[in-house]
Amino acid sequence: MKKALIINEGFSNNLGDQAIRESMTNLLQDSGYITNFAYFTNPGIRQLPSYDYLTAVPVPQKELSALQLAKLKFSRWYWIARNYKAMVKILKEGNYDVVVIGGGQLIESSRRSFTSRFAIAIDWWTRLIKEHSKAKIWLIGVGVGTSFNKQEQELFSKALSRVDIAWVRDSFSQSVLKEKFGISAILTPDIAFYNSRNSMEQANTNRKALVGITSYQEVYLRYNAANAKSKQEYYDEWYGIVKQYEDQGLAVELFYTTITDAAETVLFRDYVRERYGKELPVAELSTVTELKNLYMEASEVYAGRMHALILAMKHQCKVKPYLISQKLKSFNEEYIIPDMSMEYSHKIRRTFNELVADS
Predict the structure, then answer these.
(1) CATH for 3-197+345-358?
(2) What's the rounded Cα separation, in Å, for the pair 99 and 163?
């Protein structure tokens, strides 16, 4: 049997990233591959850590000092010094036929003057794959950001030149990859849509709405800094969404898919309690399985995280996105509005079969 190494953010605290790892593993194993996994930006971690979501405390983002910014100029070398041994060990121990990098928003900028850790990681991974193995490199199911600083442009360009096949999850990513890097990519749905051959989610008849609050500091301000709402305005907007579901006669439960979103959700719950005198329940989640079980209790899902919406669609929930970023806007136009979620898994399988046949 052929062997594949999967590299993505699947050991992060983001349940969406963990779901991507699960779907990618299923896709390759369903295709007859023996698989191993490596954590894209932290390869020294070899198993999924245990994350405690609801005890997380938001950490305010501060402006970096001149000394911190100076140190970040050397971040590429700090990163490889810390991770080189782990990466080489992973590559040498497997004798892989193919290395799959993806899915996830891996071609992304820091949106600051310093270099994105994704740009650093993919440059070193692709370089070491070529040096220490004969494996083909497949970039599968990735999303691409909107703009990049000079160093990021250089590192991503080098990395992409080493890739044998590129497969992106939306037409915006496809156009950016072509325009900025000269790469013609295959377009197919996000890998998290893939259902293993041994599983198919069933619809339910519950009348319950799940509302997923997205981190104000980490996500909302990152993509909306130029014309941002205040935190109170942001919370009032989310409360308006809660009220809309309640007015339709639906029970509402708050949920999250990352540690920072969990912390924001607790703050939002406390804000609603103090300002509106209403107690909103918060789901207790720590695994993808628990998230899937939650979706089995719901009919509607509103969220600002793409993979929270994808998993809800797989469970045949009616979804609505909080359009917080270009990524969500593209996803809404290409996958939510057409409402063909049951077809997306089949399309991924067909595309992958063609990929294997041509390689």
Answers:
(1) 3.40.50.11930
(2) 10
